[in-house]
Specification:
By secondary structure, this protein is mainly beta. 0% of the residues lie in helices and 32% in strands.
Amino acid sequence: MEFCEKCGSMFMKKGDRYVCAKCGNTRDTININTHEKMPERKKVEAVKEDVSVYAVTPAYCVKCENDKAYTWSQQTRGSDEPETIFFKCTKCGWSWRRSRG
């Protein structure tokens, strides 16, 4: 797919020529490689998060029965919805969340 150098719109095929959909600029040929391979995706490594910067709050962990957890909040849905509160046990690292509202 190529774009017009004058206005930036996409060229469309009309008959034996290519015409810009916006300004009417024309070309006889366009460089289109229909057999081009998509590049392979790179593997993403997990990022280790330093939870020690989060506040510690009293919260019950169902996995190890610890009574303290790191906590933070994040907007995970629409801006008109309440934020989600996340917890991570200070002892075993188990994570859970609670929706406000």
